[in-house]
Write a structure and sequence with these properties.
The longest helix is centred in the middle third of the chain and has 10 residues, at 87-96. The chain is built from seven helices and seven strands, in the order E-H-H-H-E-H-E-H-E-E-E-E-H-H. Helix content is 30%, strand content 16%. It has a single domain, classed as Aconitase, domain 4 (Alpha-Beta Barrel). It is globular.
Length: 161
């Protein structure tokens, strides 16, 4: 069962993917080894495929580095759910094929809760607490990009039709 990794407001791209690696690491698998290391040193070694990152307001603020979204996806994160996102991070996440879900109800999710997310139905099921949290589903055209693995695979698919 996927778990929630809960963080607060204003989680910036420099703690999602440390700036010191921006020009030295380009392999997504290696990026994943450093995901959130300055905020949560336990994250990269303990995140499991399908886990979700949950945060407060303004997730992904700071520089526009696309590695912040790429490293989370490469680490196995299935979605980032936050009250709000920095505009550039939000688009970088979609472009990388990482769902970025705006959800006001994240306060009811705690670190370590077992959660499921249904992107198409617009709901998060917190199995630990037995509650369901609704959100506005990601628009279909953006879901196509996510389902295709990101913007580049999506465009290649469109060109090959």
């Amino acid at each position: 069962m996927p778990r929630a990794w809960k963080y607060g407001d204003d989680v910036n791209t420099d703690v999602i993917f440390p700036g010191k690696y921006t020009y030295t690491i380009s392999d997504p698998k290696e990026m994943a080894e450093h995901a959130l290391e300055d905020l949560d040193p336990d994250f990269a070694g303990n995140v499991r495929e399908g886990d979700i990152v949950v945060a407060g307001k303004n997730f992904g603020c700071g520089s526009s580095r696309e590695q912040a979204a790429v490293c989370l996806k490469a680490a196995g994160v299935s979605a980032v759910v936050a009250k709000s996102f920095a505009r550039i991070f939000y688009r970088n996440a979609i472009n990388a094929g990482l769902p970025a879900v705006v959800c006001e109800g994240v306060d009811s999710i705690e670190h370590g809760d077992e959660v499921e997310i249904d992107l198409k139905a617009g709901k998060i099921i917190n199995r630990t607490k037995g509650v369901e949290i609704g959100f506005t589903p990601i628009p279909d055209f953006m879901m196509e990009i996510i389902e295709d693995g990101g913007l580049l695979p999506h465009l290649k698919k469109q060109l090959n039709r």
